[in-house]
Every structure is written in C-alpha cells, then in structure tokens.
TrEMBL record:
EC number: 6.1.1.17
Residues of the Aminoacyl-tRNA synthetase class I anticodon-binding domain: 327-464
Residues annotated for ATP binding in this entry: K247
Catalytic reaction(s) noted: tRNA(Glu) + L-glutamate + ATP = L-glutamyl-tRNA(Glu) + AMP + diphosphate
Signal sequence annotation: none
Annotated organism of origin: Sphingomonas caseinilyticus
Domain of life: Bacteria
Protein name: Glutamate--tRNA ligase
Entry keyword set: Aminoacyl-tRNA synthetase, ATP-binding, Cytoplasm, Ligase, Nucleotide-binding, Protein biosynthesis
Keyword Translocase: no
C-alpha cells in the first residue's frame, strides 16, 4: 500500500451516478473521495452519467447532479461522459466475448428461468444460472436470445481492496450473468466495465455495496485481457443511530443542504471528508490540506454515522470565517434587499454571523434591520415589554437622544449612566431596548444594533414602544 506522500503516476478516477434522482449525500462523498484521490496524485477525475435506464433517467436529475458537484467544487475534468451514447461499443465487446468463446448465446425462456429458480428455492440452495446453452453452438436463427458471460466455475477470485483488504470469492458463486439483453441493449455490468476501460480508469472508488459487482465485472475484464483497476470499496453512511441512512437522519440531496438547510459548500466538503476518513485529530480541514493529506488507505472499514448537528456546528465555523460580502450576497435574495440595503447588511454581517449556524439564521437575524415601523413583536418580546419595561424605555430614550455621539462607546456610557442613576441592572434596560429595536429577545449586541440602525430609526422604534403596546 502507498502512503499519503507517495504519488501514483497516471491515476484516473471516475464518479458514475445514475440520473434517476438527486445527488444524495453518499454519492457526494464518493465523488469527493474520487476527486481528492485524483488531485492528490496529480491525475484525472472523470464524471460518467450512467443514463442507460431511459425510463427513470431524467434531465432534471442530470442537472441536479451537475449543479451539486459544481457547488461543492468537485466537477469532473472535461465534459461528462454519457453512458447511453456508447451502447454500440458495449454491444461490440459482448460480441467479441462471444467470438472468443468467453460468452454464449442463451435461449432460456422466462418460464425455464422461473422453474429453475423455484427448484433452487425448494432445495434451499442459492439460485445460479445453469444454462444448457453454455457449451452449445447449434444456435437457432429465429429465436430471441441473450448473451451471457461464461463465468469461471473453478478456483477463486481475489481482490486486494484498498479499503476492505484482501477479499476472496469462490468462482462457483459467480453466475453466468447477462451481458446483452434480447433487444440488443447492454446490461449495467457490461457497460461499466467497457466504460472504465475506454476511459482509462485506473482506480475504482465506490460504495461497498458494489463489492459483489467487482467479482462479476472481473470475469469480463479477465476474459477481455484488460488491465484490472485498483479497487477501493468505501463503507456506506449510516444514520446517527447506526441504522440505514434515511431522510429522518438528514439523507437529503446536496441541493437541499444548500437551499433548505443553508449549508455552505466548504462546510459540507469538510464534513463529508471526515465521514470515514481522518487526519489525526484534525476537524477543520481546508480544501488544500485535504488534497495534500488524502489517502484512501486510511478510509475506515466500518460505516460512518451522519450527524446533522455536527454538520450545523461545522457550518457555523465556516460562516464565521466567510467573507462578509459573500454572506450578504447569499442572504440578500431571502430578504429582497435593494443595493443600499445590501450595503447595510454587509456592515452588519460581522455581528450577525457570530452566532449563526446556517444562512437561514443569518437572514432571520438580519431581518430586523429592514423591518418597517411599527415593528411586529414576537411572543417573547411582547411579554417582555410590560409597563415597567416601557417606563425604562422612556428613561433610555432620553439618555440616548442626548448622547454626544452615535457610536458604540458613547451609547454604552449613556445607557449605563441611566442604569446606575436609577439603581437598575443593565439587563433591565438592555432587554427592553432589544425588544423595542428588533422585535425579538435575541440579536447582536444592543449597542451594535443601535449603531447599525442609526439614531433616527433607533429613537423612533423605542418611541413606538413607549407610546402604546404593539397590537
């Protein structure tokens, strides 16, 4: 096995999703691992859209996959390869195998297959294709047939997997699977092998649910005398409770993490990287560090557990690290801001992002800046602004109006002077002020809020709550 510092020349990896749905979180991690492995070794990372299922494959799914990969910054090198465009090539290889004697025409009917399957069930044996056509050449000219591989029946097949280690399967367990259907269309098993060879793929990094497929695909590779790729079968992602990952665990499409959960791409990139792979105790890993450090040999053998709370906490870190104009550009469409309002949002962002875990929280936290008077108080703020609190607001209003400068320290001093002279704790003034200024009981620091809103707007909002309770 290689270390993380060794470079393998000529590496070509691929990510090969089926466009029958969104780019799910497991697929995104597989793409990431392929991208990182290729980048680490200075190789190529290719994207293959496996769209041979014409009924279920959709343009919307293809667009969602391409969009999700682009958002994460792991688009393929060059144009995507669409599997459906190469069906003639797949069929050509099936006929080459037929000519080499490594495959055969099988005329078994559906009824015969069903009967064979029922016999296996009755005998409590695993079902294996046992076709009388395997070694025959007296093929009828007028009957439909499929082309099956002549899988080896003796010995065993061994895979030295970079993640799973050495895995051995008896060849008797590999049946004569179909290469070409009776309508001339290739099966997934054939198309994958041909595409990998034609694309020059050297390393196949994919979920361990494909490990059994690897042994079947090797039957084709060996029969064609093609180079065997290096395999790395990565354990699947489970939920936080160890169960199979589902929507209740956060198994959403990549676009949903962006649009519905407000996750930044660098946060999801970092989180997916750490799902099953690690570099010591490092939790925050940049894209550059990931490329430098990534080693597929250090992917764990056990399923990793997806924890949405950990992702949100990590996202909070990246929000605090992000540029203010960039964050403002993400928040602005959610609030429908003008150019002038966007400028204010950028100014406010250092205070807003300090406590936000996602873009939606940023937008919610910023909304008070652009609310029209009189503010609509949320339930907690309405309860807080009782008669006593409104009396305190009047005291604060007078002191703030007389402040020599409308800046943080001067406003802080003015409010503290009111508190001290009236034997009040600072919170007895700050909390009603926050409710009056923002309509909420949580916000950035109250003196930052005053500065951001400006003197005229701040005093007007306070006065609104001094005059009468908000209906």
């Amino acid at each position: 096995m290689t270390s993380a510092n060794d470079k393998i020349p000529g590496v070509v990896t691929r990510f090969a999703p089926s466009p029958t749905g969104y780019l799910h979180i497991g697929g995104a991690r597989t793409a990431l691992f392929n991208w990182l492995f290729a980048r680490h070794h200075g190789g190529k990372y290719l994207l293959r859209i496996e769209d041979t299922d014409k009924v279920r494959s959709t343009k919307e799914a293809i667009d969602a996959i391409l969009d999700g990969l682009d958002w994460l910054g792991i688009s393929g090198d060059g144009e995507p390869y669409f599997q459906s465009q190469f069906e003639k090539r797949h069929a050509e290889v099936a006929h080459q195998l037929l000519e080499k004697g490594a495959a055969y025409r099988c005329y078994m009917t559906q009824e015969e297959l069903a009967a064979s399957r029922e016999r296996a069930q009755a005998e409590r044996k695993p079902f294996r294709i046992n076709s009388e056509w395997r070694d025959r050449s007296d093929w009828p000219a007028d009957k439909p047939y499929v082309i099956r591989i002549k899988a080896p029946q003796q010995g065993e097949t061994v895979i030295d997997d970079l993640v799973q280690g050495r895995v051995t399967v008896a060849n008797a367990e590999i049946d004569d699977f179909i290469l070409l259907r009776s309508d001339g269309s290739p099966t997934y098993m054939l198309a994958v092998v041909v595409d990998d060879f034609d694309m020059g793929v050297t390393h196949v990094i994919r979920g361990d649910d494909h490990l059994n497929n690897a042994f079947r695909q090797l039957a084709i590779i060996n029969a064609m005398e093609w180079p065997v790729p290096t395999y790395a079968h990565v354990p699947l992602i489970h939920g936080f409770d160890g169960a199979k990952l589902s929507k209740r665990h956060g198994a959403l499409g990549v676009d949903a993490y962006r649009d519905e959960l407000g996750i930044l791409p660098e946060a999801l990139f970092n989180y997916l990287l750490r799902l099953g792979w690690g570099h010591g105790d490092d939790e925050i890993i940049s894209r550059e560090q990931a490329v430098e450090w990534f080693d597929v040999n250090h992917v764990g053998k056990s399923p990793s557990r997806f924890d949405l709370k950990k992702l949100e906490n990590l996202n909070g870190h990246y929000i605090r690290e992000a540029d203010d104009p960039r964050l403002a550009s993400l928040v602005s469409p959610k609030l429908g801001l003008s150019y002038e309002e966007l400028t204010l949002l950028i100014r406010a962002m250092p205070e807003l992002k300090a406590r936000a875990h996602n873009v939606h929280e940023l937008a919610d936290g910023a909304s008070f800046l652009f609310d029209k008077r009189p503010l609509k108080l949320d339930e907690k703020a309405a309860v807080l602004l009782n008669d006593e609190a409104r009396t305190h607001l009047a005291l604060a209003h007078g002191a703030l109006a007389a402040a020599p400068q409308w800046e943080h320290d001067a406003l802080d001093a003015a409010v503290r002077e009111v508190a001290e002279s009236n034997s009040l704790k600072l919170g007895k003034l700050a909390q009603p002020l926050r409710a009056a200024l923002t309509g909420k009981t949580t916000s950035p620091g109250i003196f930052d809020v005053l500065v951001l809103l400006g003197k005229e707007e701040s005093l007007a909002r306070i006065a609104d709550q001094m005059l009468e309770p908000n209906k």
